[in-house]
Design a protein that fits this description.
This protein is α/β, with parallel strands linked by helices. The protein has a single domain, classed as P-loop containing nucleotide triphosphate hydrolases (Rossmann fold, 3-Layer(aba) Sandwich), CATH 3.40.50. Helices cover about 45% and strands about 20% of the residues. The strands form three sheets. A five-stranded parallel β-sheet has the order 4-5-3-6-10, with helices on both faces. α2 crosses α3, α4 packs parallel to α5 and α6 packs antiparallel against α7. It is globular, with a radius of gyration of 18 Å. It binds adenosine monophosphate. Adenosine monophosphate (AMP) binds next to α2 and α3.
Length: about 240
Amino acid sequence: MVVAEIGRQLTVAAAGPFAVILFGSPGSGKGTQSRYLVDWLGIPQISTGDMLREHMRRGTETGQSITERMRAGSLVPDEMVDSLVRDRIRAEDCRRGFILDGYPRTVPQAGAMLELLSSVGGDEVVIHLAVDYNVIVSRMAGRRVCVKCGTLYNDVTRPSKSAGICDLDGQPLAVREDDREEVVRERLRQYEAQTEPLVEFFRKTSKRLVEVNASVERPEVIFGRIREGLKALPGGEVYPA
Ligand code: AMP
């Protein structure tokens, strides 16, 4: 694979795309780091969680079949997410590469993803955001969302000016359905059982794994660590400055 830098964009002049696999537990800051990576590398983010929520919102057959599992914080079947990702990465905007946020989440999904990638001549880099269990629970317990405009707050890291009220439209703040405590615990249980083994899987199989401690610092500091980690990998000098 040949990767060269043009402006602030990562350019892949290989047969296939460059996949940046971002994984970490719920509440590890994957979504925030994905957005930084999108801006830095100029490739799109693919979030299976967002795609599944969109199916639920539109009430598609897929959406209807997963409502219960999503509400309970359980994973949806591997084949379903495998096929969503397979279809999505065929799109033109994924030609150079893409950031996978929340996929793969099981060892079989990782196997399917690596096979798919090698079938299109692509390559991957893996970023693992490691966060302490207690930090995650307190981060997620503090999350609040505006019932009207959807703006996110956090009692600890991003409080609203007036408790329980949105700064932008004065509407009440609520706890998101999948941030309810029992759902958070179930999501963490699933993560430990199904996704934690991926760390070992990638330690064994991937030439390019970056492990970042994402427990305490601000998101920009964590992103700085990701960039340093990527640049320290073999061939890392090709990333944007
Ligand atoms: P997220 O927004 O990534 O935290 O995902 C929200 C929910 O979508 C998860 O709790 C799962 O129910 C489902 N989900 C998202 N990605 C996957 C995946 N790769 N495999 C199975 N279920 C997933």
